[in-house]
Amino acid sequence: QVQLVESGGGLVQAGGSLRLSCAASGRTLSTYVLGWLRQAPGKERDFVASITWSGGSTYYADAAKGRFTISRDNAKNTVYLQMNSLKPEDTAVYYCAARRNFLTEYGYWGQGTQVTVSS
User: How confident is the model at residue 28 (pLDDT cuts 50, 70, 90)?
Assistant: First the structure.
C-alpha cells in the first residue's frame, strides 16, 4: 500500500505561482512512477506531469510544459509540482497518484488539493 497526502493548493492570481507537495508513505517507491493529474469542474481527469522515483525522469502534458516542474526529494519521500505563470484554465483539483511502473494504471491516489486561479 502507498499513502499519498497532498498540500499546497490555494487561490492565486493569474501569472502567480504555487508549489504542490505530495508526501508518500507505506512502502518502498524505488520502481514507482509518481504523477500529478487534475480535474476541472465538469471535465475529465487529465495528466499533468510524472516522474520516475528512481531515475527522476520527467514527463509533462503539453499544457504544463515550460510552466510546471515536477521534482522529488527521495529523503523526504515527497514529490513536488512547481507551477508558474498560472492561468485561470489551470483551476482544478490536483491529485497526486502513484503506479508501480509505466505498464500499470495509477492505483494509489491522494485526496486532492484545490487550485484556483483568478483572472
Answer: confident
DSSP conformational letter for 4: E
Query: From the CA atom positions of the chain, what is the Rg in Å?
Result: 13
- The residue count of the chain comes to 119
What average pLDDT is seen over the chain? 95
Average pLDDT over residues 79-97: 98
Of 37, 5, 40, 25, the closest CA to residue 110 belongs to 5
Residues 6+ apart with CB under 8 A from 3: 24, 25, 26, 108
d(CA 52, CA 71): 9
C-alpha cell at 62: 503539453
Position 22, amino acid: C
